[in-house]
Amino acid sequence: METSEERPEEPTETAPAAKTSLSMSYEEYKTTSNLLILYMRQQEDKEDDEFEGVRKSALVDWYLRELEDEIESEAELIERKTKVEKIVDRLVHHDHVIIELDKTGLKKRKGDEEGEELVDEKDPLLVVHPNFTIDA
């Protein structure tokens, strides 16, 4: 009976640790979003005509590399990664600042040379909306 009483206690101890607050100030959100957008615009300027966009994973990786000196633990790394992914999702779906190109290219079906179909990307390309201007 002692083992059955101990098991229910274990999940309750790990549950609060797994559930952390992802809140941030508006200033932190604007700073992070402007940093991401400036990086995307710089990539666009470098590649000019051949620019297709920045992969979402590449954008998140770049941001984490920029902050690697400030990150002290693996838990903080995971928290920062989650936050930046949520910021990118908000910029795409709520603010409409970033355009997500998740259906790209043409894919041929096996055995059918004329069949064409859009490929649904798991790691979409991201581009900044052409009418967006950064507020100072």
In terms of topology, how is this protein built?
Layout: H1 2-18, H2 26-47, E1 54-55, H3 56-66, H4 74-93, E2 98-109, E3 112-128
Antiparallel strand pairs: 1-3, 2-3
Helix pairs in contact: 2-4, 3-4
Major pleated sheet: 3 strands, antiparallel
Radius of gyration over C-alpha positions, nearest whole angstrom = 21 Å
Report the order of strands and helices.
HHEHHEE
For the largest beta sheet, what order do the strands appear in spatially? 1-3-2
Beta-strand portion reads 15-25%
Low-confidence stretches: 1-18
Look at the structure and give the mean pLDDT. Answer: 79
What's the short version?
This protein is of the alpha+beta class.
Supply database-style keywords.
single chain; alpha+beta; three-stranded antiparallel β-sheet; globular; 136 residues; disordered N terminus; 3 strands; 4 helices
